[in-house]
Amino acid sequence: MRLFSYIVAHDTGFAPNPFWGCCTLANCKPGIRRTATEGDWIVGLSRKSAGNRIIYAMKIDETIDFATYYRDERFVAKRPDFTTSAVVCKCGDNIYEPHPDGSFRQLRSTHSNGKHENPETKAHDLGGRYVLVGDKFYYFGVDGPDLPPGLEALRVARGHKCRFTPDIIQAFNVFISQFDQGVMGHPTTWPTHDHSWRQSES
């Protein structure tokens, strides 16, 4: 297995999307999504100015293409829904509807220009080729723990890291296993009055 670490520049519940029973990385970080495989781990950290806290960690159980992701009934709840006031429904990451000719329509979402597509984010997202799905994940959000001594190597400035020694990977596995799995806090950027993130586990 490999371990990937990167900075979650915008922790909004969109990328990653830890809701509705699994954690998914469907947008942003195309370099990771093109190369990570089943059994690898991904760790997302906060910015250096926020202490490089652990925002989330997920073990990859599946790598699937965008058309499969959109059509799979397991992930219908991850399509953004703007007919409700619940924020958790609006930050869905299942935003690329496949067309018969192999192209995609970008749904209204965090990455669109309102109701219109954003060509720049669309090309960036689809350039990753795959959606990463993790049933085993730890999402801390705003309440993320600090990196412990011995795991400072996971810190990254730009891009991502994935060349870690077996000792670092083992230390990470020991550290992360002490926490409960699932969603343990709301995203860093989240309306204070909204608690819909708690309902997504049902």
Structure overview:
The chain has a six-stranded mixed sheet with strand order 10-1-3-4-9-11, with no helix packed on it. A three-stranded antiparallel sheet has the order 2-8-5. It has a two-stranded antiparallel ribbon with strand order 6-7. The protein has 202 residues and is of the alpha+beta class. The chain is built from five helices and eleven strands, in the order ββαβββααββαβββαβ.
Using only CA atoms, what is the Rg?
A: 16 Å
> What letter string, H or E per element, gives the SSE order?
EEHEEEHHEEHEEEHE
The first-to-last residue Cα distance is: 31 Å
Tell me the number of helical segments per DSSP (H or I, 4 or more residues long).
5
| Unreliable spans | none
Work out the strand percent: 15-25%
Anisotropy-based shape: globular
Please state the average pLDDT score: 95
Largest sheet: 6 strands, mixed
How many beta-strand elements?
11
Question: Biggest sheet: strands side by side, in what order?
Answer: 10-1-3-4-9-11
* Helicity level: 10-25%
Helix/strand class = alpha+beta
Structure summary:
The chain is α+β, with helices and mostly antiparallel strands. It contains five helices and eleven strands, in the order E-E-H-E-E-E-H-H-E-E-H-E-E-E-H-E.
